[in-house]
Amino acid sequence: MSASVFGIAVPAAHAAPNTIITLTFDDANADQIPAAAILKSNGLKGTFFTPSGFLNAPNYMTSQEALALQADGNEIGGHTVTHPDLAQMGPDEVKRQICNDRVNLTTMGFTVTNFAYPFASLTPAVESTVAACGYNSARGLGDLESVVPGSAGLGFAETLPPVDPYDTKAPDEVDNTWTLADLKNLVAKAEPGGGWVQVTFHHIGTGIDPTSGIADPLTVSTTLFTQYVQWLATEKAAGRIAVQTVQETLGGAFKPVVAGPAAPPPVTSGNLVKNASMETAGPVASGLPQCWAQGSYGSHTATFTTVTPGHGGTTGTHAEQLVMSAYASGDAKLLPTLDLGECAPSATPGHTYEMKAWYTSTTATQFELYYRTGLGTWTYWTASPYFPASTSWAHATWTSPALPAGASAISLGLNLLGNGTLTTDDFELYDSAGIKHFTDVTPTSAFYDEISWLSNNLISQGWPDNTYRPLTSITRDAMAAFLYRFSGSPAVPPNAPTFSDVPPGAPFYNEIRWLASTGITKGYPDGTYHPGEAVSRAAMAAFLYRLKGSPAVPANAPTFSDVPAGAPFYNEIRWLASTGITTGFPDGTYRPTTAINRDAMAAFLYRYNIDFPKG
To answer: What's residue 208's pLDDT?
Structure first.
């Protein structure tokens, strides 16, 4: 009788003739090299699950050290490229992380047949991907009994062959609370029934990170590790156990490598930062916005919290707050996730990048940048000059030097380099090659940032003479074009309405038809649209209100002295004020019939995007 896992026949489980112990080591930490020497001196071998993106980085093994481990009979296994939580990622990123890790390691000269899940985090779909990438097995954690509370009753050993080779059972990872007796018990309790026990280590030695000076709890002392290895060697010599690698235990042929999907190609237009306004929440366990991650090094305490309100200043708008205390060295920052393409912005070597972000801070801050190589390794790149502390929202802007050769993606964040509080929101990153600067809009112009945002996101490219004409009134046809491009230039339905004064071939013909198809406009009762007519402030409120889907207007929404109940677009104007997109004029008026200039329209749409990001 046999079972089937992902279409692979698995013989019925049975008790092994004796107990097999596999010593596994996760993450390619440099302090595992001396541990391997202890194994070798006692005639034992282990399996080292190695993220390919960590090799040759500070405090990690070099590729040559890992190749020497393999030459000594140890096994090198896959552990993804950058060690992410696979259960929280999309299918393409999962494939890149798992498949490309095996491609990278194989290209370096390793024979890679088995895998371990970072954080023991998996789903059935992730298991299927491991199989599709050519691995023969994958290890979980915390599925067998150990000293860890709550593990009693889980059993002492995995069956051979495993019921599910792509989620093999193992005790929890060893940490600095474990004793020699705890380690021996993993073996002694499994011996009567036989089977397979995978014992997982991370750090061997002092447990002190050389960069931060902080002890890592996933550490056992060299003395304890040596005592355990010597005891295992004695048990092996007595014939009570075997000590083998995963490959020696499970066998299986080396399968062809399979590359994951290509990362998205770099683009030269639009904001490259995903979830730039941090409105979309990420995994509950992370407590961070989607596509954002903590970055930190050195000795300090850094706490990240999502706060409301954010830069937009209205309820429901989020920002991320960093509080640093007990500072001794290093820095901390929030960064777009250092991944292989799902979140990190792809980039072009040789190009410069313009970045912007809003912040408040009790101390100085700066942009800190990292880049990804083709292999998938992330490395520190450079930092901007400092921006001063600010108790109100301030705008940090900087243009990077040229991206180094071999780089394929960028990640950036504002950091703290001392005790203090930093709140950040509304990040922007643009390839300078795609930025258009208008000759009539200078850094001292009103709404310069807002017009630049409009241009950088291709919502407006101005006139052929490279002007924006900020003080010209925006017309109804141009308004249709702005809203259409802001919405991502969607397909225009074939049956979209037409207007008698907007024939085919007219400027913004399709944009106006799209606007009508959404219900944002119905035109005039006589079937016209009046495309060249200036947009009033009242009509602008109506356009943005309908763009949002005509939401309920709060009962306590502000009113204006010149917009009485029953006035055209009364509720639409009150809704606009309730969002903070408009505050009206200092005298308490809204001036509904005043025409909107193109610079002011850029400001209104910019503020709308802060409250209701387009993605």
So the answer is: 67
Say how far apart CA 365 and CA 413 lie, in whole Å: 10
**What was the pLDDT predicted at 437?**
87
Contact between 138 and 166 under an 8 Å Cβ cutoff? The reply is yes
Which residue is listed with tokens 């090198």? 76
Q: Which domains does the chain have, with CATH numbers?
A: 2-250 (3.20.20.370), 292-434 (2.60.120.260), 448-611 (no CATH)
First-to-last alpha carbon distance for the chain, in angstroms, is: 52
Burial group, residue 523, by CB count within 10 angstroms (0-12, 13-18, 19+) = buried
Positive or negative, the CA dihedral 440, 444, 446, 451 is positive
Q: What is the pLDDT of residue 577?
A: 94
Contact 418, 346 (CB under 8 A): no
Could you write out the DSSP letters of every residue in 412-434? Answer: EEEEESSSEEEEEEEEEEEEGGG
As a residue count, the chain comes to 615
| Residue in the structure block whose two tokens are 């792509």 | 166
CA distance 355 to 352: 10
* Whole-number CA gyration radius for the chain: 30
Token readout for 49 is 């699950």
**pLDDT on residue 358:** 94
129 φ, ψ to 5°?
A: -65, -40
Helix axis angle, 476-486 relative to 537-547, nearest 10°? 30
Rounded Cα gap, residues 368 and 332, in angstroms:
10
Q: Exposed, middle or buried by CB within 10 Å (0-12, 13-18, 19+), for 516?
A: buried
Measured CA distances, 574 to 291, 541, 548, 596 (Å): 34, 9, 14, 17
Q: What is the 3-state secondary structure (H, E, C) of 443-454?
A: CCCCCHHHHHHH
The owner of tokens 């399709």 is 510
* CB neighbourhood size of 479 (10 A): 27
* pTM for this prediction: 0.81
Predicted pLDDT of residue 611: 81
- Rounded Cα–Cα distance for residues 480 and 386 (Å): 40
The predicted pLDDT at position 209 comes to 65
Per-residue CA distances from 150 to 77, 153, 172 (Å): 29, 9, 11
For tokens 């509950």, the residue is: 284
Low-confidence ranges of the chain (pLDDT < 70): 1-17, 208-213, 313-316, 614-615
The residues, any chain, with a CB within 8 Å of residue 200's CB and separated by 6 or more, are 24, 25, 26, 116, 139, 141, 170, 171, 172, 173, 174
CA distance 191 to 174: 20
Write down the pLDDT at residue 374: 85
Q: Is 613 helix (H, G, I), strand (E, B) or coil?
A: coil
Burial 433-445 (b: 16+ CB within 10 A, else e): ebbeebeebeeee
| 25, β-bridge pairs | 48, 201
pLDDT for residue 258: 96
- With 0-12 CB in 10 A as exposed, 13-18 as middle and 19+ as buried, what is 465? exposed
Task: Render pLDDT for 52-67 as a digit per residue (tens, 0 to 9).
Answer: 999 998 889 999 999 9
